[in-house]
Please model this.
Amino acid sequence: MSDQNKKIPAIHLEEISRIYQMAAGEVAALDKINLMVEQGEYMAVMGPSGSGKTTLLNLLGCLDQPTAGRYYLGGEDVSALPDDQLSEIRNRKIGFIFQSYNLIPQLTVLENIEVPLFYRNSHDPEGFKRAIRLAEMVGLGSRLDHRPSQLSGGQQQRVAIARSLVNDPLIILADEPTGNLDSITGQEILSVLREMHRQGKTLVVITHDDSVAQHSSRTIHIVDGHIKE
Amino acid sequence: MILPIFFQRNLTVGLKSLWHRRLRSLLTVLGIVFGVASVIAMLAIGEGASYEAQQRIKQMGSLNIIVRSVKPPAKASTSSQNMGAMDKYGLLKSDFSRLQTIPSLSQSAQLRRTRETVWQGEWNFPAQVVSTNPGYFQLVSLSLASGRLFNENDDIYRSNVAVLGAGLAQKLFPLGGGLNGTIRIKRNYYRVIGILSDRSISGGGATVATENVNYEIYIPLSTGLSQFGEFIFKNEGGSTQREWVELHEIVLKASRESDIPATVSLISAEMKRSHKAADYEIMVPLELLKQAEQTKRIFNIVLGSIAAISLLVGGIGIMNIMLASVMERIREIGLRRALGARKRDIVIQFLSEAVILSAIGGAIGVILGIFVPALVTRATGMKTIVTVWSPVLAFAISAAIGVIFGFYPARSAAELDPITALRNE
Ligand SMILES: Nc1ncnc2c1ncn2[C@@H]1O[C@H](COP(=O)(O)OP(=O)(O)OP(=O)(O)O)[C@@H](O)[C@H]1O
Ligand SMILES: [Mg+2]
Model:
């Protein structure tokens, strides 16, 4: 990444709204949100249940589109793109970590890490080497051929983390990554995230856990679809 | 690398997940296997049967028109009451002379058929004795394996010479040496001057009844008439019956195929004029051939429909397993979409699974479908013919079924909303 790129914010939201049309009326899950996340930031998102955290993360991850407002991802306007382009952006610029790991059961550890490489447009001969290196980084170098069902929850989440990094994305989004883990294993996962931050990755992590906020460089609170820092 | 990388990758994904559920994949494939195999096997059996029928008809000569004596039905019922009474019916030598004058004919022969026991030393065998003109052999394209055929002189001098069918020669002279051997029918001895080549058609499923030429013995017409006379004694239900038939068959050959219909109506008019009773029938091998072809066409349509239904069932099986597979893997689909899969990647992934399933089924079905007719031939002696196009067609259809029945499940997988799919439990 060049110095010039560094100045462009990783995430820039302008008056973003996400309104769900329901039979019973409209639900404004997000209401005219403005947000700027610089490259290399580690941002924790907190807030009560139903406040709009997951909605925000889905928008940031280009899985969903805002009903109003502009979203610039690494300077590129992605607020209204056709489906195929959104797929490509998710593939190149975004790494997802889910609460429930979401590994594919019939694939091995290494194959799971490699999945994003499958959907790359350009041929990437380095990708598979990187996948092995990432597996080693998260401490699973000796279990490349194991299936997800043979791993503990913490190990599965490590695989998911390695997978989120394999395409060298601009931002990494995690929705309660420790939600399914006991506190000790959760702490291990958080230290992996902290290590990623130390290496310069941009992270947005939804959490209910106050200790995450201590690791992060910044914490925002969402209440009723509004941001409170 | 033939396939674009895009296809290769999705194909790999498809293969992996099929292998993951291999027992279920195998069971699904069976529908296609049996569908394809039955198509090929049924076509092969049908093709074989119709080939046999056509060969038999062709043996009769495709330009020939055959007029045969038939016992009229009215006489048949009275004669059984008048024991010992003599029935006179059928073709006359005068019919032959008159029919011969029809200008569109190129060749003709008249013949009598009698069942006699043929002796060779202590060996004997019941055979059909055909007394005919020398021209008959050429008319029905009988060819010699050894020796010679009888000629006009033999006919004029009523020579006691005989030509044996291959099968009969084998029975009477099991150690060989039939040629120039002597055989006996009733009190008369005949010299074997020729032995015909084998005319058997493999298989048992005869659709057209023809005398088995392999067990016939041929003698000159004049010889036959002088030896056996014109009466035929039949033993029926314990009582002896006498029948008077001058000629059993007249074979007429048209000069050209296009002359056949007109010639047939001339023959029919001529016969009607001189025969009041229906004591003859006119048989046209070419028409039988056309009928056989028509029958085959109908047969093929019926087979085609059965095949289509069995393949349809196979296709529904594939659709069923693919829909189940999509339902089970909603989260996987959501995840793949989140990680960058486009809708078309998902379509290709599931479509290739369906096509792999049906193509594997098709391939196994083709092997089975070629193997089964061979087995049928071995077990029953029935002739079967696997034409080149039938496995090709069956395989192509099975692959197409994968595409057609795989498309809806693949499409519905691709249209899933990624967020909803990821939330699925
Ligand atoms: N698909 C949807 N259709 C309608 N309403 C929705 C939909 N998804 C979310 N909402 C609504 O939007 C609001 C925000 O939901 P969201 O899932 O973002 O909350 P959250 O902060 O992630 O909660 P939690 O901490 O429980 O995960 C809620 O009121 C929810 O009911
Ligand atoms: Mg949530």
